[in-house]
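Section handout 9: paired folding examples.
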Amino acid sequence: MTTPRTSNRPQRGQGQWALGYREPLNPNERMKKDSDGLDVRQRILDIYAHTGFGGIDPSDLRGRMRWMGLYTQRAQGIPGGKTAVLEPEELEDSYFMMRVRTDGGALTSAQLRTIGGISTEFGRDVADVTDRQNIQYHWIRIEDVPEIWRRLEAVGLTTTEACGDTPRGMLNCPLAGVLEDEVLDASDVMAETVAKYVGSPEFSNLPRKWKTSMSGCVDHCTEPEIDDVSFVGVRNADGEAGYDLWVGGGLSTNPMFAKRIGVFVRPDQVTDVWAACTSIFRDYGYRRQRNRARIKFLMADWGPEKFRQVLQDEYLHAQLPDGPAAAPPKHESRDHVGVARQKDGTNAVGFALRTGRISGSLLTRIADLADEHGQGRTRTTTQQKMVILDVPDERVEDLVAALAEHDLLVRPSAFRRGTMACTGLEFCKLAIVETKQHAQDLYAELEKRLPDFDEPIGINVNGCPNSCARFQTADIGFKGSMVRDDSGEMVEGFQVHLGGHLGTEAAFGRKFRGHKVTKAETADYCERVLRGYLERREPGERFAAYVARAEESWLL
C-alpha cells in the first residue's frame, strides 16, 4: 500500500502521518518511534528470559511487551480504590498476563491440549476464554516465555500482536464452514489476511488497537456493529456471496456503532480491502491524543462517504461496486450455545463456561472429549463460550453429559448463558472491582430467585469503563466503580446501563444520573428490575424493548 505524502484533508494537527505529522506526540508514540514493538521478541529471548523481571527495560515492560501478547499483571491485594492513585510500577506484579492469538477461535484438539498444558504447567492452571475468541493465561514468568512460545509455535499458534497498537486477533463465526445456513465461509480470507499482515512491520505501528471481524454468520455472532473493521456476509442482487464493509465501531468511554461503507467486497478482494482500511487508520488516524486514537473518531469526522472515497482513490486505486446491506441477524442469541446441525449431518455442541474462566486441566479434558465424540475440532466464541464440532447424533447426549460433569453446560439457564465478565480486579491493573467470581455468584443467585426465567438476558460485568465485557450493549450492563454504601463507606460497586442491544435498532444501554449499586446490591437490583419486566412486558417483548419504553422509576 502506498502512503500519500500530502493532502488537504481537515483535522490538521491531530498527529496524522498522511498530513506530515510524524513527530512523536505522546509517550506511546515516542516509544513506538524509538523501537518497533515487534523488536521486543528478540530481547525477550536473548536478554529478559535470562535477567528475569527486574532486568526488563521500562519501555518494553509497559509498552512493547504488548506486541508479543504480554501485559504486566496486577499485584495481589491492591483494592480498586487505589487503581487511579498508584503509579504503574506500584500496581504491577512480577508476573504477566499472556494472550494466545486464536484467530476465528478455531482450535484443533492438539492445539487446545497444548494451550491447556501450558496453563497447568506455567500459569497455575488458570485460563480465560475471552469475548475476542482468544485464550489468556495469568501468572506467567518472563523466564518461561521462550518455552511457552516454542510449544505454541510447534502447533501453529502465536502470541504475536495479540495486544498492542496492532491488528489484534480477528473474529469469525465459530461455526464457519459447517453451519447449514451461513452466507459464506470467511475462514480462508481471514487466514490469508493473517498470514500476510500479522507480524508485518507494515501495520505494527497503528495509532491504537485495530479489531477485525470477517464472518458469514446469519446471526452476526462476531458483533460487527462494534468492531473497527468488519466484513459481513451478504448476497448481492445477482445472488453472489461477498461482504458488506463496516468501519468505525467501538465501545469504551465514547461508544459508537460502525458505519456501512456501502460497497460489495468479493472474497478475493477482502485481504486488499482490509489492508487499505488498515492503512487509512495508520496514515490518517489521530495520534496526538491517546483517547482519540481509534478509527471511530476519524469516522465520526469523515463519515462513510469520505472514507469510501479515500479508500478507493488513494489506496485501492479502483472503484468498488455498491452493495446491499446485510440481512439483519436471524436469531436473537449469538453465542452458538446448544446443539446445531452441521452441513454434513453431524452436530456442533456449544457450551457455557463460568464467565469465561476455566483451568488448563479442563481445557485439556475438552480436547480429549473433542477427540472422543467428534473429530478433534473445537471453537471459542465471542461470548466467552466454546463449541465442539462434528458430533454424530448418537454421541450428542453422551457429550452433553460428559461436559456437565465438569459444569460445562450445553443447556444452561438464561442467566448462566447470558452472563459475561472481564478479567477484573484479580489480575487487571485498570480494574476497579472484582468481576469473574462476582458474575458467577450473581447468575447462581438469580437462578435461585427466578428459577422459571427463560427469556434471553445478557448481563455483562465490567471492572472499569473500558468495556472489555461490552457493558453498553448488554441488557444489564455493570460498569465497575467505587460507590458509597448506606453507612457512607466507599465500596466496590457499579454504574448500571440497561437495555443495550445490537442488530436491528441497535442502541447503547440507558444510564441514569447518579444511579449506582454496590456489589452487594446487584442481585437484589437485577431481581427487582427483571420482576418488573415480567409483570409489565407485552407479548413477545424482549427486555431491551421493554427498557426503551419503561418509566425511569421501573428501572431504579
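Moving on to protein 2 of 2.
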Amino acid sequence: MLRRLVPVLLTAAVVALGVAALVIRPAAGAPEKTVDYVVLAGVPGLRWDDVDPITTPTLWRMAERGAIGSLSVRSARQPTCPVDGWQTLGAGNFAAWDSGAVTGRCPAPDIAIEQPDGISANLPDQRATVSNNQDKMRWGTVPGALAESVRCTVAVGPGAAIAAARPFGRVDRYAESLPADPTELLGLCVLSIIDLGTVAGDDPALRAAAARRADVALARVLAARPKRSLVMVAGISDTDQSSRLHVVVADGPGWERGWLTSRSTGREGYLQLVDLAPTALAAAGRPAPEQLFIGQPATVVDGRPADLPTAIAAPADADREARAQQRVASWFFLLLAGLQCLLAVAVVPLLRRARRDAGPSGPTPVPRRVVATVEVLLIAAALAIPAALLADVVPWWRGEHAGIYFALVTAVLLAVATAAVRLARAYQQTLWPLGSVAALAALIVGADVVTGAQLQLNGVIGYSALEGGRYAGLGVVGLGVFVAGSLLTAGWLAQRVRRSWRPAVVVGVGVLGVIVVGSPYLGADPVGAVALTAGVSIAAAISTGGWLTLGRLAWATIAGLAVTIGFAVLDLRQPADQRGSLGRFLSAVGDGTSGLTVHRSGASNMAALAGSPLTVLALVGVVLVWFALLRPWGGLKRLFGIYPAVRAGMAGITVATLIGGLLGGSALNVAGAAAALTVPMAALAALRVLDHATDRTMPPMTSWPVETTASSGTAVEAGDDRSGTAVETSDDPSGTAAEPGDDPSRTAGKSGPAQSSAEVAAG
C-alpha cells in the first residue's frame, strides 16, 4: 500500500512546490511622490548614438547625474511617427493620430492649432482622433487621459500640444515656442510638456545639428526648471520605417544616477513610451486613471557603471542588436521552415521502405548510410532553434555583415551539438536521439531563462524590444521549444522506470518546467505556465499506457485546475498594478471589461497566424504526422504502442502549445516552435522502430517478478501495457535489461542479434 502511495504523495508535494514558486512575486510597492513639478521634454528620433559631450553637453551632464535607459516607442501604428508618439505620450496607452499606413519617411506634422485668447489653445481634430482610437483601434485608448489627470498642463510647441490636449481638444496653457526665459511658464502648472524638435535622417551632420539645437533648448529648460522638479528627456518616436531604441533620461530628486526600469518591461535599463504618463503622475503624487493607462511608473535601480561612456555603450549596443535582429530573424525562420519542409518530404520514402521484410524476398531496404545521414539531418533540424538562441553568446550583430556572422556562429554551434548527440556511446539506443536532443534543447532555453534571459532579449530566437511585446522572461519561440523539450524529456525518463512511478516522473519534470516558465523571477509567463500545467496533467494521466479514459481525463483536469486556480487566487490578492496577465484578465471579467482583452487577443492571434513562418512549421508538422507517421507504414503508432510514456509526452506537447498560443495571442507560433523540435525526433524514432519491426528473436530475460491479477490469477509482467497494444519489458531500474525497441546488437554493452519482445508483440 505504501509503495503505491509514494508516487501520489511525491506528485502532490511537487505540485505544491510549483504553485508556491509561481505565486512568489518580487516586492514592489507603489511609487511615492518625489517632486512637485514634472517636465516632459520630447525629441522625436533622438538615439543614444546622437549623444556625446561635444554635440549635446547639456544632455550629457544631465545623464551623468540622472537615471538613463532605452526607450521602446511602440504605438498603435508601425512605425511610430512623431504625431503618434506625442499622441501615445498623452494617452498613456498605444495610440495613433490616424489609421493610415506610413510609407517611407514619416510625413511632417500638419496639426491645426487654434489659439483665440493667446493663453490656451484648441485642437479641432482631437475629437476625431479620439473616435478613431476608440472605434478602429484595439487598445481602448483615450487620447488626452494624461491631461485629464491633472488640473493644469503647459504645452510648448505643436507636438507637445498633441500630448497635452484634453479629449475634447483644449490645451490649458500653450506657447508656440520656448521663450528665452521660460521660468514663469514652467511654474504655471504641475505638468509641462515641451517639444524640443526632431532629429531625423541618416546624414550624421544633419542629425548632429538637430541634436545640438535640441540641447540648446534643453539648457534653457534646465536653467528655468521649478524647484523640486523632475525633468525627463525622451526620444518619443521614430522618423521613418526603421524602428530603433531611443534615449530616455530622468533627472530630479529621487532620480539620481542609475538605470530606469518599470514593471511593464521587467528589465533594467528599458522603458516603454506608455510608461512616461504614469511615471509623471506617480512622481507628482497624482492618481492614475483606472483602466486607461497600459504602462507602469518608472523606477530607478542601481548597477549602472559610474563612467557614462561605458554606461551608454550598453543601450547603444542594444539598439544595434535589435536592428540586426529584425533583418536576420525573418530569413532565419523562412529558411528553417523551408529546410524542414524539404526534410519532411525526403523522410516519407524512407518510412515506406524502413520496415525490413522477414522473408527471402521483398523491397530493397534503404542503405544504412542513407538512413544514418537522414538521422543526422533530423537531429540538426531539431537543434536549429536552440543553436540559434545560443549564438547570441557571440556579439555577431557588431560586424558589418551581421547576417553572415550569425549564420556562421549558428552553423558551428549546430555542428557541435549534433556531433555530441551522434557520437555518444548510447546513440544506437532507439530513444537516445529523441531524449538527448529534447533534454539539450530544454537545458539551453532553461539555462538562459534562469540566468536572466539575456540571450532572448533582442535575439533572433527571442523577442525584440522594438516590438514592445516583451522585454524579459520567456518568449514565444522559447516557450514552444522549452515545452516540447521538457515533455519529451519527461516521457523519455518515465519510460525507463517502473510503470507505477511514471506519473511521478512526468509530474516532477513538468513542474520544474512550470516553475521556470511561470515564476516572475524567471520566465514570467503565467499563461505559458497554465498551458504547460495542462500538458503535464494529460501526459501524466496516460504515461502508464492505455487510452485517455474519462477517469484519467477527470484526474488530469482536476490537477490542472488546482494549479491554475491556486495561482489565480493568489495573483488576485496582489495590488492591481502588480498582477500578472491572468489576474488582470480575471479582474476585467469581474468588472465587465474583458471584451476588450478578448478582442486584443483575437486580433493578435490573427496577425500571428497570417504573418509568421512558424505557422508553416506547425502545419507541415501536422501534415507529416497525420498523412505519414500515423499511417500503418509510418511507424508512429508502433512507437506509441511500445513507448506509452513518449506518446504521453507528445500528447501533452499538443495540448500545452495550442493552449499557450491561443491564450497568449500568438496563434500557432508556440506550436510551430515545438514542432520544429518534436516532429524531426518523432520521424527519427519511427524510422528506428520500423527498422526492427520484423525481427523474430528471443527476448532478453528481465529480473522483475510477476504480478498475479486478482480476477484470473494470470501472471503478467510488471511492465505490461494492458491497452492491448504492446508488451513492455523496459521496467528495469538497474538499466541492464534491453530497452523496448532497441536492437541489442546496436547497443553498447549488449551482444547478439536478440530483439526485444515488445517490438515482436507490436509487430
